[in-house]
Amino acid sequence: MNYFIAANWKMNKTIQETRDFLKSFIPMTGGITGVDIIVAPAFTALLAASDEMKGSAVQLSAQDMFWEEKGAYTGEVAPGMLLDVGCSHVIIGHSERRQYFHEDDAVVNRKIRAAHKAGLGVIFCVGESLDERESSRTFEIIKREVEQGMVDVDPYNLVVAYEPIWAIGTGKTATVEQAQEVHSFIRKTLRDIYGNKADAIRILYGGSVTPENVDSLMACNDVNGALVGGASLKSESFYKIVSFKKEN
Ligand code: PEP
Q1: Which of 94, 103, 116, 183 does the annotation list as catalytic?
Q2: For a FRET experiment, which of 104, 171, 240, 243 has its CA 20 to 30 Å from that of 28?
Q3: Cα separations (Å) of 101 from 75, 93, 129, 137?
Q4: Which atom of ligand 1 is nearest to the CA of 226?
């Protein structure tokens, strides 16, 4: 199973900056094997990114979408529009969407089902806040988010990203033990839903991943990749992450 490493650029980079990054990054990735590399620029730069990625193995993701196919939904973007612009994936349920745009588990589930129906791969994010961790509710929150997110969802074309909210953009990374503990809990929760089919679902870690900590995180049993924010904005830094040292 390949590792899966995705860059989440959030609300950063113009069209030109996106092109410049990819012109520098894509040639660096030629020799990398065993890693699916995905980049998620802002909506406005998807077309330019798709153009730069042509003929390369780097794949394009959006950071969000709406569940309807078309219609009077001002400001929204449909799954088919993402396919049209060249996306293979979409991030759904990121904690910033849950926090600032009030997306709850039902909304996240609806989006995942719509993305799958359109044929998009889903990067499904879950994670607990600092309060929830400190009040020993981590497993309860993760179980709820995974179970509710996966209602009527097939276990294909899907990766789950564990992103402890307290580790996102803060420079605080979960320790290897903390990451492995939650990843193995997510694996168990997925097995309870899907049986053996759950073992094909890659579980990514996200939260202040850097070139310095990526090797030890990727060496954990149930860590199958990473979702990277800040450290994916510079091509050299993201290259160091996707070329992490694999154990054999
Ligand atoms: C993210 O928001 O998906 C993320 C992991 O951000 P950062 O790497 O900056 O913590």
Answers
A1: 94
A2: 171
A3: 13, 10, 16, 23
A4: 5
